[in-house]
Amino acid sequence: MGLLDLLKGKYVDPTYPGVHAGGDIITTTVDAVVKWGRRSSIWPMPFGTACCAIEFMALTASHYDLARFGAEVLRFSPRQADLMFVAGTIVDKEAPVLKTIYDQMPDPKWVISMGVCASSGGFYRSYHVMQGIDEIIPVDVYVPGCPPSPEALVAAVMKIQERIKNGEQAKSPQGAHRLGISGEGAIDRRQRRAAWQQDDAARAAEGLPPRGVLALRVLPTETDDHHHG
Amino acid sequence: MASATQEPPAASGVEAPAARVLRAELGPQLRSVADFRGDLAITVERDAWVRAASLLRDHPQLDFKLFLDLCGVDQLDDDTDEGLRDRYEVVLHLYSVTHKHHVRLKTTAPEAAPDVPTLTGVYKGANWFEREAWDLYGIRFTGHPKLERLLTHDAFVGHPMRKDYPVGQRHVLKSPKVQLMDVPADSEHLLVNIGPSHPAMHGTFRVQALMDGETIAACEAEIGYMHRNFEKMAEVRTYWQIIPYTDRLNYCSSFMNGHGWALAVEKLLGIQAPPRAEAVRVILSEFSRIMDHIIAIGTNVVDLGAITPFFVMFRAREDIYELLDACCGARLTVSYVRIGGLAQDVPEDFEARCRRVMKSVQEVVDQADGLLTRNPIFTSRFKDVGAMGKDEALSWGWVGPCLRGSGVAYDVRKDHPYSGYEQYDFDVPVGTVGDCYDRYLVRMEEMRQSLRIIDQALRKLPSGPVIVDDKKVALPPKSEVYSNIEALMNHFKLVYDGILPPPGEVYGYTEGANGELGYYIVSRGAKHPWRVKVRPPCFNIYQAFPSMITGALLADAVAIIGGLNVIAGELDR
Question: How many helices (H) and strands (E) does chain B have?
Answer without folding.
Answer: 21, 15
